[in-house]
Amino acid sequence: MSELTCIIITHNEALNIEDCLKTLDFCKEVIIVDSGSTDATVSIAEAYGCKIVKTPDWPGYGRQKQRALDLVTTQWALSIDADERVTPDLREEILYAITRDQHSGYLIKRRTNFLGHWMRGGGWYPDFVLRLVRKDHARFDCAAVHEKIIVSGPVGRLNSFFLHFSYRTLGDVFTKQQRYALLSSKKIRSIKGGKISILLSIARAAWTFFRLFFLQRGFIDGRYGLIAAIFKSQEVFWKYVAVEFESAADTLK
Q1: Confidence at residue 246, expressed as pLDDT on a 0 to 100 scale
Q2: What torsion, rounded to 10 degrees, do the Cα atoms 125, 131, 137, 143 define?
Q3: Is 91 within 8 Å of 23 (Cβ atoms)?
Q4: pLDDT greater than 50 at residue 196
Q5: Cβ contact 189:116 at 8 Å
Q6: How far apart are CA 104 and CA 176, in angstroms?
Q7: Separation between Cα atoms, residue 35 and residue 17, nearest integer Å
Q8: Residue 9 phi, psi (nearest 5)
Q9: What angle do CA 29, 32, 37 make, to 5 degrees?
Q10: For 166-194, what is the mean pLDDT?
């Protein structure tokens, strides 16, 4: 068994978690840090022999993943989301990489399935994420959303990829757009304060659409690329609008 632990944070992931866990049997241990799931997430994870830690609070993505990383006792850790899957090729490449031990971390590509379509452009592929790390050389930042692993030492790249099933329905798109926009707005407010104009919000959203659909060739995905670029540009718009209006609301309290 490899000296590798997989860490996953969960909240009501019963739809995803079993298919994810089926691809992780090469890991010595799988640690689940769950923030109050009310569905079958925990019972499914228990059936697969995972180590489960329940937290009463939600400190944000970065801090929650750091909690999971702190529980790792093996030399290597693989951070994965419940809606991701390790392919057979990626499994073999991960095992080979940790045996060679040439880097402190590895970037892994993701292929994202958006509304049933495997995305090719628009920044969706190849989407490199730093997920495989030496435990003693890595830590998560404290970001509430879009968290990152910070690694001390050289970082390599793997050729194989995760499969990512993040947006199965339009409901998923709308839900995540709202959550990410509001969480990102709080981060901007903490850094820049609460003065973001509506015109700037529109300009940033327009630039996001142009960059994703044209410069990053989202158009090669047809209507899916168009919908995805609109979705991302709207997320940017609402993120900056929320900075302005939530700041104004705070002053009235």
Answers
A1: 62
A2: 90
A3: yes
A4: yes
A5: no
A6: 31
A7: 14
A8: -100, 140
A9: 155
A10: 85
